[in-house]
Amino acid sequence: AIDADTRVDEMSLTHMVYAMNQSDKILALCGETKVDNKWQTWVTMFRVFEYYNNHHMKKAFESAFGCVTCLPGCFTMYRVINDDGKPLLADDHVFAEYLRNDIDSLHEQNLFHLGEDRMLTTLLLHFFPDHYLTYVPEAQCFTIVPHTLRILFSQRRRWINSTYHNLLELTKVKTMCGVLCCSMKTVVWLNLIACMILPASTVYACYLIFLVAGGKTQFSLLLLVLYGLLIGVQLVVFIIRSRYDFLFWFIFFTIVGVPVFYFFLPLYAFWHM
Q1: Do 162 and 111 form a contact (C-beta atoms < 8 A)?
Q2: InterPro entries this protein is in (predicted)?
Q3: Strand partners, 143
Q4: Residue 200, Cβ neighbours under 10 Å: how many?
Q5: Mapping DSSP to helix (H, G, I), strand (E, B) and coil, where does residue 180 land?
Q6: Model pLDDT for residues 94-116, shown as the tens digit of each residue
Q7: d(CA 77, CA 68)
Q8: 263 pLDDT band (50/70/90 cuts)?
Q9: What pTM did the predictor assign?
Q10: Among residues 42, 127, 189, 265, which is most buried (max CB within 10 A)?
């Protein structure tokens, strides 16, 4: 599956097919999507780190559980039929659920009309709990991202709302691997809660920084350790993968992108849900 505005690296399909051949339990996999027009405007510039973070942090983490929660429609490979002839993507249950035309609730509209790729991923996790959805960082593609705030807000209104409602559906999947707190189900619940409170937590963080700057309070040791780990882990990934240029993209995203992604976009999306 590929989008019209996506440019694929010539070796990407080779890496994807190789990964598929390693195990017949791999139902689908996606590669890394990079920003193709990163220098076009300031809006595209703070998307560079966001895309990197979503793949090398989030999708790589979910892949360790064999449960990538969103295989993007812009660049994904699916196993249609297994080697023994068993239908996978071509399964009648998947088709019957995916091709429904009786959508009448707000929840289902956000599922089926706004995030088709996420909904398909959710259905695959539901019907094939003994298979894996994984991420292949060697398979790379380059996509055109929105270059104005108006187009970005339109895109993210769809993405954020479909993400929220698909996470609700994922909480019903009982076969995610792990035990208690160390499970993919816990990760889904944490993502769901974080999605809901993101604007409020951003306001609180700004208020706390304001109090510290005014000398009225101090950062707790626990908070400093948590932020140190969050930033430190990302810096380690940059160093290990020799991507020192992402230090610039990380700083640019922190200054410019955080207010947009963590406050304005969620509020706009929820208002137009």
Answers
A1: yes
A2: Chitin_synth, Nucleotide-diphossugar_trans
A3: 6, 35
A4: 11
A5: coil
A6: 989 888 888 888 888 888 888 88
A7: 13
A8: very high
A9: 0.85
A10: 265
